[in-house]
């Protein structure tokens, strides 16, 4: 890749070509958990938070009626920082001169102006927001633009009882954060565990659970599959504009094949299996050119999620209120050479594979220099996504709409998508995985509520 191309696809601030592309999509900007006083006590009296999205500094707040507001962080009067504003029941007031703003951006008061109020003509830029699956989303498109619609993914359709969201900060560019998730080959190395664990402790932990299906009557954990079969066949298929299905095959013997089906949704979302009954939908929101928040949505197709257990598992690795990892370049990501020799391929912990991905992405530097790469056949999906990204940038430059910038009727047509991690008969693996995925969906009461009610 040429240096100019690398700059083009990684820089996302205002006025950049890739930034213009990104502003055609809703961006996840905060977890509802970040405003939960049980986790962040100061939110009980002041639900205000500074956020940075696509290189823009904003302030997110909620008024006493529960309405959300997302405003430019600098006050339109003389530029003071509204992240330090006084929270009031009906809005946010700048402490510099008392100007107050409602959640919709309207200026409610300019008290120092006396008989010549400026409210009618002055307000900060207000950005549309919506809440889905425990996450606040924002629209940063051009003023007057029509927001696209979010696809009807399972993570947005599931009830709160079957959905859980979490996030974490990585000190790297958005693209290298996303590319680790659409690289099926890396899991056999980066996430290799030298021993397997009891399946009893697998809840909420990726690659620790069993795959669907058996080998000679034995259920295999994904850790064993990854360790013993590290040269997969990778296939990718365009399902719709901006939606690609990834199928990774690992031949176990002449009779059985391990099948892992995941999905990539343009520009930065992937959908993967966590276990037999839980999927992960992960987005990679660019904070700025050198920082990224990943947002993970966990969706259960069986019983309700134990959200508190999953939250506590993941809070062990980050500090609140901003979900910054405890480990990073400053402490060598917790690298332990003895662990690398005896327990894991990487040597950076056995509890949370997010740390493994964090090291891979951050160790490349804030923005990876792709001119120095030597890509192989296992990188075919990454190469395809980069080509799609370059083409989408040119489409936006020409005034067109990029992939996945959806009208409501288009968004309704993109559902699911199905994922699987299974051991299938080699001669009919395609039919086997689709049947297994259909059975998983059929067992989800929240997906089949109308049929359940009809039977009742």
Give short descriptive properties of this protein.
disordered C terminus, four-stranded antiparallel β-sheet, eight-stranded antiparallel β-sheet, Naphthalene 1,2-dioxygenase Alpha Subunit, Chain A, domain 1, single chain, Rieske Iron-sulfur Protein, 23% helix, alpha+beta
Protein model, in words:
The protein is of the alpha+beta class. It has two domains: 24-139, Rieske Iron-sulfur Protein; 152-442, Naphthalene 1,2-dioxygenase Alpha Subunit, Chain A, domain 1 (Alpha-Beta Complex). Helices cover 23% and strands 26% of the residues. It is built from 13 helices and 22 strands. The chain has helices at residues 3-10, 17-22, 154-157, 174-181, 187-190, 222-228, 307-315, 337-342, 354-362, 380-397, 408-413, 429-442, 449-455; strands spanning 26-31, 48-53, 56-62, 68-72, 86-88, 91-93, 100-101, 107-109, 129-132, 135-139, 152-153, 163-170, 233-240, 243-251, 256-265, 269-273, 278-288, 291-300, 318-319, 324-325, 415-416, 420-425. The strands form six sheets. Strands 12, 13, 14, 15, 16, 17, 18 and 22 form an eight-stranded antiparallel β-sheet that branches. The chain has a four-stranded antiparallel β-sheet with strand order 5-6-7-8, with no helix packed on it. The radius of gyration is 23 Å and the shape is globular.
CATH class of the largest domain: Alpha Beta
The helical percent reads: 10-25%
Q: How does the overall form come out from the CA principal axes?
A: globular
Mean pLDDT: 92
Which regions are unreliable across 5 or more consecutive residues at pLDDT < 50?
451-456
Oligomeric state as shown: single chain
CATH topology heading of the largest domain:
Naphthalene 1,2-dioxygenase Alpha Subunit, Chain A, domain 1
Q: What is the terminal separation in angstroms?
A: 59 Å
Strand content: 25-35%
Largest sheet properties: 8 strands, antiparallel
- Distinct helical segment count: 13
Tally of extended strands?
22
Q: How big is the Rg?
A: 23 Å
Task: Give the name of the CATH architecture of the largest domain.
Answer: Alpha-Beta Complex
CATH superfamily name of the largest domain? Naphthalene 1,2-dioxygenase Alpha Subunit, Chain A, domain 1
Q: How many domains is the backbone divided into?
A: 2
Q: Which class best fits the helix and strand makeup?
A: alpha+beta
């Amino acid at each position: 890749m040429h240096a100019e191309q690398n700059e083009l696809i990684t820089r996302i601030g205002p006025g950049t070509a890739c930034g213009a592309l990104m502003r055609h999509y809703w961006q996840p900007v905060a977890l509802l958990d970040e405003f939960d006083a049980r986790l962040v006590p100061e939110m009980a009296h002041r639900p205000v938070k500074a956020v940075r999205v696509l290189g823009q500094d904003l302030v997110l707040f909620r008024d006493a009626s529960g309405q959300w507001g997302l405003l430019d962080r600098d006050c339109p009067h003389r530029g003071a920082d509204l992240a330090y504003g006084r929270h009031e029941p009906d809005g946010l007031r700048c402490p510099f001169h008392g100007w107050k703003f409602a959640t919709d951006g309207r200026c409610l008061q300019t008290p120092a102006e006396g008989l010549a109020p400026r409210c009618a003509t002055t307000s900060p830029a207000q950005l549309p927001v919506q809440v889905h699956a425990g996450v606040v989303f924002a629209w940063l498109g051009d003023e007057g633009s029509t927001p696209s619609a979010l696809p009807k993914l399972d993570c947005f359709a599931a009830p709160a009882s079957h959905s859980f969201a979490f996030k974490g900060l990585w000190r790297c560019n958005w693209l290298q954060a996303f590319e680790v998730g659409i690289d099926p080959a890396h899991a056999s190395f980066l996430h290799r565990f030298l021993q397997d664990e009891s399946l009893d402790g697998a809840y909420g932990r990726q690659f620790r659970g069993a795959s669907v299906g058996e080998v000679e009557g034995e259920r295999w954990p994904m850790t064993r599959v990854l360790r013993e079969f590290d040269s997969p066949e990778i296939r990718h298929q365009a399902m719709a504009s901006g939606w690609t299905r990834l199928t990774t095959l690992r031949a176990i013997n002449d009779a059985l094949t391990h099948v892992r089906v995941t999905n990539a949704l343009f520009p930065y979302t992937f959908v993967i299996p966590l276990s037999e009954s839980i999927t992960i939908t992960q987005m990679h929101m660019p904070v700025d050119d050198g920082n990224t928040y990943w947002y993970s949505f966990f969706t259960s197709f069986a019983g309700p999620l134990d959200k508190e257990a999953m939250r506590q598992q993941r809070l062990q690795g980050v500090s609140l209120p901003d979900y910054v990892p405890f480990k990073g370049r400053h402490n060598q990501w917790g690298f332990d050479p003895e662990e690398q020799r005896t327990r894991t391929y990487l040597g950076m912990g056995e509890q949370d594979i997010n740390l493994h991905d964090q090291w891979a992405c951050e160790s490349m530097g804030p923005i990876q220099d792709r001119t120095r790469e030597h890509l192989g056949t296992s990188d075919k999906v990454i190469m395809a996504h980069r080509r799609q990204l370059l083409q989408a940038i040119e489409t936006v430059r020409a005034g067109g709409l990029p992939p996945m910038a959806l009208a409501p009727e288009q968004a309704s047509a993109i559902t699911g998508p199905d994922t699987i991690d299974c051991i299938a008969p080699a001669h009919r693996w395609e039919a086997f995985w689709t049947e297994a995925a259909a059975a998983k969906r059929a067992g989800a009461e929240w997906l089949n509520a109308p049929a359940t009610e009809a039977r009742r």
